[in-house]
Amino acid sequence: MRKPLIAGNWKMYKTPRESLAFLEAFLPMVEGHERDEIVLFPTMSSLGYVLDRIQGTNVRAGAQTMHWMNEGPYTGQTSPTMLASIRCTHVMLGHSERRIYAHETDDMVNWKLKAAFGHDLTPIVCVGETLDKRQTGLTEAVLRWQIACALNGVEREVASSLIIAYEPVWAIGTGSTATPSQVQEAHRIIRREVAERIGQELADSTRIIYGGSVKPENAGTIMSQPDIDGALVGGGSLDPETFSRIIKYPKA
Length: 252
Ligand code: PGA
Description:
By secondary structure, the chain is of the alpha/beta class.
């Protein structure tokens, strides 16, 4: 009942020309692939081009971040209204690189999440512990806190499109993937916290995806865990061939 979702986070890679060249190669490779949802997250400068090019295909695209207000004197920001106006369907919120380098707080993630629901943008809320927190036994506390803050005051009636990405900070871009049982355990904690905040029924239908050094070689094993509903792929999404191999992971 939870359709798997494979997302490509392009971070600060690819000009518009490079993004379109990627799509020329990639779209035929995944044409007709219906088992999983496919969503790309290009940079803001490529997003409009990508959204135009994927019209009528099985690929969707979203923004890597957004502001929570509709407009205002916020230099460098893009609003939910602006994203919706270019037919953007998804938005990523609270990625650890945003939390670290742009000082995004749990409160901001919460405001952005409410704004996403208010504009019919499907949100992917990213959570995850640092290595230090894992080593000191605080993984569960961190995950529960991040989820509780993100969902603070969110009405269950509007939250049916919620997607959560569990991305242990120590596994991002490092080549060291969390083990399937570590991920399964983290996803179980997250689902329980979502149930406490917005109800069991919604928690059961919320997709929780994993991110952190996902490659064609490990995608099948990761996706075989019962609580893992997809993947958020950084480095492995930059090359069309590699990303399409991840999307076509063998089903266990
Ligand atoms: P990675 O990045 O796949 O390069 O580890 C994942 C992410 O940051 O979303």
